[in-house]
Write a structure and sequence with these properties.
By secondary structure, this protein is an alpha+beta fold. The protein is built from six helices and eight strands.
């Protein structure tokens, strides 16, 4: 029998992580058309509201139902505005391991939201879901994403050579694919000790996927 993640809400001092819903369509579409997100992810460009609706109503529910992962909207506690996404993918229920990724909207960068939401997700996975390993993969040149991994206590395990495709905007406005390396990071339950103190105040830096 396939295990699945519950439909849950996770709260921090500043954020609420919850399932995506159709009200998020406009904000999700706007966020995913950002140049930096286009550069570091495989999100189709341009990203339309129809694409956002498909993600929310079909893709995300199917991934959760199949036990492969979980997509969570990251929203500000006070304004309820969508500030980003946390995704769990490639979940292995036998070894209790999953891959975590994060995306932050352009207007919300520099506030430590990626670190705060990633840490809250990790604490929930290790505490409530009894997971034993979280993996994060960052493109070799994506320094901001690597900062987030380091901030929450991840350990760099090595490099997957030529395993990643990043995107560069050409002069004619089209996107060109370039091959790059993945840096592999891991987080185990014992790595979280002291993470709350490290994140006290959530020191600002430019964090996006």
């Amino acid at each position: 029998m396939t295990s699945t993640f519950p439909s849950i809400s996770i709260s921090t001092e500043r954020l609420v992580l919850r399932p995506l819903d159709e009200d998020d369509v406009p904000a999700l579409a706007e966020m995913m058309n950002d140049e930096n997100i286009a550069a570091w992810t495989d999100v189709p460009q341009p990203f339309t509201e129809d694409g956002a609706r498909h993600w929310i109503t079909e893709y995300a529910p199917a991934e959760r139902a199949a036990g492969r992962g979980l997509d969570l909207a990251v929203t500000e506690f006070l304004t309820q505005r969508l500030v980003g996404i946390v995704q769990l993918t490639n979940t292995d229920w036998h070894i209790r391991a999953t891959e975590l990724s994060y995306i932050v909207a352009p207007w919300a960068r520099g506030e430590g939201y990626a670190s705060e939401s990633a840490l809250a997700t990790a604490q929930w996975l290790f505490g409530d879901q009894k997971f034993e390993r979280i993996e994060i993969r960052t493109a070799a040149d994506n320094a901001a994403s690597q900062q987030v991994a380091q901030k929450i206590g991840c350990i760099s395990e090595g490099v997957l050579r030529n395993a990643c495709i990043v995107h560069v905007r050409a002069e004619d406005g089209t996107w060109t694919d370039l091959r790059s390396d993945f840096i592999v990071w891991s987080l185990l339950p014992e790595d979280l000790e002291g993470a709350d103190e490290q994140l006290a105040g959530f020191t600002a830096y430019s964090d996006w996927n």
